[in-house]
Amino acid sequence: MVVKQKYIKVLFWALTFAVLFISSTPGSISDSIKNLDKLAHFFTFFLLSVLLLFAYKFSKPFFATALAMALFGLGIEVLHLYVPNRVFSWYDFAADVLGILAAFIAYKIIYKKFELA
Question: Which of 48, 80, 82, 89 has the fewest CB atoms lying closer than 10 Å?
Answer without folding.
Answer: 82
